[in-house]
Amino acid sequence: MKFLLGLALKNLSRYKKRTIITAAAIAVGLGIYIFIDAWLLGAEMESERNLIWYESSSARVLNESYWEEKDQLPLKYVIENPEEVTVRLQELKIPAAPRTVFGGELIVREDPFEQDGSMQVKIFSIDPEQDNTVFRFRETIVKGRYLKPGEEGILIGSWLAEDLGAEVGYPLTIVTRTRHGYYQIIDVEIVGIINCPNPSINRGAIFLPLDTADTYLEMQGAVTEINLKFPERSDAEMLAASIEEKLIEDFKGIEILSWKILARDYVAFAAMKQSGTRMILFLVFIIAAVGVSNTMLMAIYERFRELGMMRALGMKDSQVRLTFLFEAGGIGFIGSVFGVMLGCILCLWIVNRGVDYSAMIRDMDIGYRVTGIMRGAWHPKALVIAFFLGIILSVVTAFFPTRRALKMTITDCLRFQ
Amino acid sequence: MIKIDRIKRSYKTGDTVVKALRGVTLTIEQGEFLSIAGPSGSGKTTLLNLIGCIDRADSGEIFINGEAVSAKNKKELALFRRHKLGFIFQTFNLIPVLNAFENVSFPLSLLSFNEKEIRERSMAMLAEVGLEGRVDSRPAKLSGGQQQRVAIARALVKEPQIVLADEPTANLDSKTGKAILKLMEDMNARYNTTFIFSTHDPMVMDYAHRLVQLHDGKIIKDERRKK
Ligand SMILES: Nc1ncnc2c1ncn2[C@@H]1O[C@H](COP(=O)(O)OP(=O)(O)O)[C@@H](O)[C@H]1O
Ligand SMILES: [Mg+2]
Fold first, then answer.
1. DSSP structure string for chain B
2. Domain of A276?
3. Interface residue A234 vs chain B (CB under 8 A)
4. Are residues A256 and A340 in the same domain?
5. Residues A34-82 pLDDT 10s
6. Contact B96/A315, CB-based, under 8 Å?
7. Which of A261, A286, A320 corresponds to the end of one domain?
8. What is the tally of structural domains in chain A?
């Protein structure tokens, strides 16, 4: 055994060129794998963070009937006493921000706009102070200022503003219905423009102060939702369930949904993206395997006579196989070491510098909640996987030509040119 | 003792069947120094492969020490070769990554010798073939004659019962070839190892103590020459 291992090591150092070429192929494959994996993981993590910080929050308290009709943005399924709920949540050290979300028609008129027009929009009424304990819009104002309580002012997403040709100070009209179904017209002025790392906000969001909305919509203090912020890395689903359990006795008819349910579309998209990624990585793997098996094949074929001699001298098939697999494993090991190193170097760059995609994402919804620079993230598990993958790949590709050689008769091996 | 009884072996390639051995019967005593001679294609290699238990006959039987070769399975044959047989090849077939010493100790590594024994025996055998000065050299650094000496040392180091050598001098010039044959003859005398070597070279045949001539897969002559 020790002798076979020594023989394998000697073969490795003797056939330097082949060892280097094969190991390099493995290293490049693994480097690419680690790099792509880190990049996509980074995008995913940042995307998830931006989703929680700007869109879904960690979890949301809703009227239990709301979710089924969420697409209509109904004002009839509400939380009547948001202050009491918020106080209870604060006792549990959970920051909470009430919001009323409603749909309406946004009307723009020629002068100052270029032409008359209207569009369907979704309006988020937020408590300017409390909202910032859960979301982070105060820091995303690029023009104008943040909302003040009670004003008839709005914040709008930067891409929406660009599409409309809107500037700070421009007037807009929102036509909607109150909680009781009456038409209501709200004349507002743009006080600020938001540009945040979540493209879906930039593309269409409109924010109005909660108390202003309360008056116009005749909500009498009720809100459609209370958004919660959980500590980072907590299990949102479990925490949501446990808080719901604590609140349900005092507040009948509510439910708490975690972001995984709230952003179901995004979660599904991310899962799809992941399986796509796996396909790509699988292809990279196949290509690498073909390349590696080719050099392995050559390496083993050119040693058929040596193999025949060893068998003639009474080496058992299992010993011959072990020698060649040790050798292949050694190549895989070298390739893996360099591959992981290469991957780490590429990761250093993608994690610290990132790639600037802003131009692309503006015009095309690629689903990720990321704008601007996309950074990678370190993924230690991928490094470990890549390491063993390299060794396994190498051993597996050596296995088949070795088996072929062992299936040949010893005399054929010895006659092999 | 080797008893070869009406052995036949033919090869199929596509539609053509080549009858390499057409019924060979031969008895070889322990310690013989025997040459199987004949022109190219007469079946020498085929016969040696069969005696060397790396090929199987179509019919007939080979008995070595009274045991039928055909009765053994693959593993048993490997073990048998490992313990009882030594091989010398026309193309030397040393392991290129190992030096002379390591090549010689290779068969011992397959047997259950400890490292000290392996070292002593291999060094002693290298000295016997006159290569004590080249123990650290890789095959590529050795001449053909030196490589074949290493191969002889490798074949003999485990003190096998039989050494099979298929045209051991065909890749060497005649002077080196003679030296190799002399060495083999010495070893045969010293260890009483049976040597069976094939050749188509009359000079080589002169060294044989017994000359078996093959033609078209049949023995046409079997003569004892000296002893
Ligand atoms: N593996 C093989 N396949 C087909 N024909 C073979 C094979 N080995 C040998 N032969 C044929 O069998 C005959 C005897 O070959 P061989 O035993 O190698 O003779 P020699 O060693 O005396 O030259 C030759 O005609 C040769 O072409
Ligand atoms: Mg031959």
1. -EEEEEEEEEEEETTEEEEEEEEEEEEE-TT-EEEEE--TTSSHHHHHHHHTTSS--SEEEEEETTEEGGGS-HHHHHHHHHHHEEEE-TT----TTS-HHHHHHHHHHHTT--HHHHHHHHHHHHHHTT-GGGTT--GGGS-HHHHHHHHHHHHHTT--SEEEEESTTTTS-HHHHHHHHHHHHHHHHHH--EEEEEES-HHHHTT-SEEEEEETTEEEEEEE---
2. 2-52+266-415
3. no
4. no
5. 898 888 888 888 888 889 999 999 999 999 999 999 999 999 999 999 9
6. no
7. A261
8. 2
